[in-house]
Structures are given as C-alpha cells and as structure tokens.
Design goal:
The strands form two sheets. The chain has a five-stranded mixed β-sheet, sandwiched between helices. A hairpin with a 4-residue loop joins strand 1 and strand 2. It has eight helices and ten strands. It has two domains: 137 residues, Nucleotidyltransferase, domain 5 (2-Layer Sandwich); 84 residues, Nucleotidyltransferase, domain 5, CATH 3.30.420.40. By secondary structure, it is α/β, with parallel strands linked by helices.
C-alpha cells in the first residue's frame, strides 16, 4: 500500500510517500511557516518524481498537532480534501508521537515542542519491543514541571524536538547524565514517520473520518479564549 504523509505543525513543511515497508520519496523544508505556499507544490513534486498521481495513494496520513494553529489547519485541510476527492482513508497522527518515532530502540523518549512562555508540548513514550507506548499522553507543561517528573521517575532519557533545543541548557543542568539529546536530523517531525504510523494505525482499524478529523491544539486558540470570556 502507498501512504502519503505530511506535517505542517511546526516550522518544517514535510511530505513523503512510503510503499509498504519502503520509503520511496520525502521532501522537507523549513522556511518561515510558509506552509500555504509550499505544501501543495511539494506534494506535486514528490508525486511527479515518483510517477504517481494522487489517485495512486491508498492512505493519507497527517500530523494533527500540537503545534502552529494555522499550520495545522493548512495540513489537515489539504489532506482532507485529497481523502474526500479520492475516497481513500485518512489517519491522523500526533506530532509528538511522530517525533518520538524518529528515535527507535531507545528507552524513554520525550519529544518537546516549544509552546512559548517557558512551556512545552510534550509526552513521554517508552518502546516495548517494536511498539511505541505512551506513558504520559500529549499535554502542555511548564519546562520545570516536566523536568521534575523526569528527574523523579526516569533514567536513560532521550529528548528531541525544537523544545529540547530551546531549553537544552536547562534540561542538561537538571538531568545531567540521565538525558541524551537527539541528533540534528531527528529534531523535526519526518513525513516518513507520519506515513509509517498512519499505516500501523490503519492496520489496527484506527481510521479517521475526514469530515470530523480536527487539529489537536492542546490549548485554547485566542478566538476560543475570547468567546469563553464573553460567555462569562
């Protein structure tokens, strides 16, 4: 089966295609959150380079967040349109799970996405054989609160994501020899990870409805906050 996956939840715009257990094409570009300009041309270039059309894709995978509100809406709208047009299944994948999936065969994997104001979007994952299991489900935490949890409960920790770059010194000062930092290429979500996770979820009948699949912001948008305040 051919799976097209993409992610627009952070600065990185990435799309790729796997065919069964083989990655056959991937394109990633980080440039000023210009997802609306870059995404569709990137998908077109990848498909044309593989001599494929959108109708050749069997499953569509997309990162559902957390991350940039606008970026997530662009990515989901694009994939939902493809799924609707081709009547093919769509599978949403947590951006944090996809980040953790970049680091197989490690013990405790902690992806971090910078959420501003000394907070991170994060989760805690553990590899059980070939399966990635969530110990702490995706959430938003103050960095110090996350470090308290990690320092108290875990060893052999690997961190990745842009949050691990922003807060690298703080993380190392607190966790010392308990923590390792990922390589540069593993700090951004990969389309190939989205594809593979989408296929795994599809095989477990974890398929989404393109009418109802929505971004997982983890925090309220400004519009939601204003609406809630008016309601008071």
């Amino acid at each position: 089966m051919k799976v097209l996956g993409l992610d627009t939840s952070t600065l990185m715009t990435t799309c790729g295609v796997i065919h069964g257990d083989k990655l056959i094409g991937e394109y990633s570009l980080s440039q000023d959150m210009s997802h609306s300009e870059k995404l569709v041309p990137m998908i077109k270039e990848v498909l044309e380079g593989l001599n494929l059309t959108i109708n050749d894709i069997d499953i569509f995978g997309v990162a559902t967040g957390p991350g940039s509100f606008t970026g997530l809406r662009i990515g989901l709208a694009t994939v939902k349109a493809f799924a609707h047009l081709t009547n093919k299944p769509i599978v949403g994948v947590s951006t944090l799970e996809a980040l953790a999936f970049n680091l197989p065969y490690n013990d405790i994997v902690v992806p971090m996405i910078d959420a501003r104001r000394d907070r991170v979007y994060t989760a805690i994952y553990k590899w059980e054989g070939n399966s990635l299991e969530a110990i702490l489900e995706p959430c938003i935490l103050e960095v110090e609160e996350l470090l308290d949890i990690l320092d108290r409960d875990y060893n052999n920790i690997v961190v990745n994501g842009d949050g691990s770059i922003v807060f690298r010194d703080i993380i190392y000062d607190r966790l010392k020899g308990k923590v390792r930092f990922s390589t540069t290429g593993q700090n951004m979500c990969k389309a190939s990870s989205i594809c593979e996770l989408a296929l795994l979820k599809y095989n477990k009948n974890e398929v989404d409805d393109f009418y109802t699949l929505a971004p997982d912001y983890l925090i309220e948008t400004q519009a939601q906050r204003e609406l809630r305040e008016r309601g008071k």
